[in-house]
Design a protein that fits this description.
Layout: H1 2-51, H2 54-63, H3 65-68
């Protein structure tokens, strides 16, 4: 009986060892994928910065002025806070009003 228990534990340990090695391989692969993704993000950020250079955008705007009509942003193009039209809050409509007091109601003279 002891020999069967030892063989069972050995089989279990053997399987756990391979599961652990597989998990470690997956973790290494995920780390490699994450590193590659960080590298791609760095390249994309560099390309974005290169494409959004002010002088390049200015040249593109000048080149396509007939089609787009883009003009430089000047301080006079902005308004003041007084010119902003804020929406008014919606007032709730009272559907069935109930009168809670009337002029004909008797008034207690002794409040206590």
């Amino acid at each position: 009986m002891s020999a069967l228990a030892v063989m069972g534990l050995a089989l279990w340990a053997y399987q756990e060892n391979y599961k652990t090695q597989q998990a470690l391989r997956e973790v290494r692969n995920l780390h490699a994928e994450i590193g590659a993704a960080h590298s791609r993000i760095g390249v994309l950020r560099a390309e974005w910065a290169y494409l959004n250079r002010p002088d390049r955008l200015r040249d593109l705007a000048d080149l396509n002025f007939d089609r787009l009509g883009l003009l430089p942003i000047l301080p006079e193009a902005f308004g003041t806070i007084d010119q902003v039209a804020y929406p008014l809050p919606d007032l709730l409509q009272i559907g069935n009003p109930i009168e809670v007091s009337s002029d004909n109601a008797p008034v207690d003279e002794d409040p206590l």
